[in-house]
Amino acid sequence: MEFGIRFEEEVNSHERIEQAIKVFAQKIASQLITRSVYCRSMRLTIGLADGACISESEKLSSPAREAKLLFKAALRLLQRLAIDVAVSELTLRAYDLDAASGVQLTLLDTNEQGQGYPHERRQNLNATTRFLRRRVGPEAIMSARLILKSQPNAGWTFPMTKRRDERILVRIDERGQPTFYHRYDRCGNELTFEVRSIINRWRESEWHWGKITDVDCFRVLTNDGGAYELKYTAGEWRLRAVID
């Protein structure tokens, strides 16, 4: 739904433009309440005295039908347009109407208008996160900042280029460091590799089965001259990377 006006005379007064937007926001709010629906997106279109037409749109952080909220959203759109010439006409449109009044899952919405300014995306992300945690549980979503937290024991190490995720058998010494590891080739033959030296070791934290677990990582050099990355997590060893 939308409301608009074509001014009899070109308007330069910012106050008159805001007043017109306020009236339209109140009319839209009245229509939304009458129809028992909520607005999820808004668009402001302005015709300029030089014949140009500019517009700006926004996906609201949550469905709304209150005049105050609609007016604030419309003012944000007006500020982004940065008008520097006289205005000849103005239209305020509310769309993406829905009967739902709860938090909208904007991140799961394919509407292209979901793209917006950083603070809008941050609000949408926070709203979605709160909704999912209430619906599924507090551990349903974990911040990547915590998941990717690293606790290096021997400083930074270079990345390996060939990634794997293969379960292996490992023999360790009294310090918990790998001395041999065993894996199977494509024909089912067991291969044994002796760990000649440990190039580097560190500890990471990763998301595993609904909680954060510590991962012990070893960059090792074996008797065949190869460099491998072994990780111990959740009670098992895995071959994660090979030097290419």
Explained architecture:
- The protein is of the alpha+beta class.
- The protein folds into two domains: 2-136, DNA polymerase, Y-family, little finger domain (Dna Ligase, domain 1, 2-Layer Sandwich); 146-242, no CATH class.
- The protein is 25% helix and 45% strand.
- The protein is built from four helices and eleven strands.
- The protein has helices spanning 14-35, 67-81, 118-136, 144-147; strands spanning 2-11, 38-48, 53-64, 87-98, 150-152, 162-172, 178-184, 190-208, 211-222, 227-233, 236-242.
- It has a six-stranded antiparallel beta barrel with strand order 6-7-8-9-10-11. A four-stranded antiparallel β-sheet has the order 1-4-2-3.
- β8 (190-208) and β9 form a beta hairpin.
- The longest helix is centred in the N-terminal third of the chain and has 22 residues, at 14-35.
- The chain is elongated.
- Residues 102-114 and 147-156 have low confidence and may be disordered.
Descriptive tags:
244 residues; alpha+beta; Dna Ligase, domain 1; 2 domains; 6-stranded antiparallel barrel; 4-stranded antiparallel β-sheet; 4 helices; 11 strands; elongated
Largest sheet entry: 6 strands, antiparallel, barrel
**CA-to-CA gap between the ends?**
59 Å
By CATH, the architecture of the largest domain is named 2-Layer Sandwich
Element order: H for helix, E for strand: EHEEHEHHEEEEEEE
Top CATH class of the largest domain: Alpha Beta
Q: Total strand count, please?
A: 11
Strand order of the largest sheet: 6-7-8-9-10-11
| Name of the CATH superfamily of the largest domain | DNA polymerase, Y-family, little finger domain
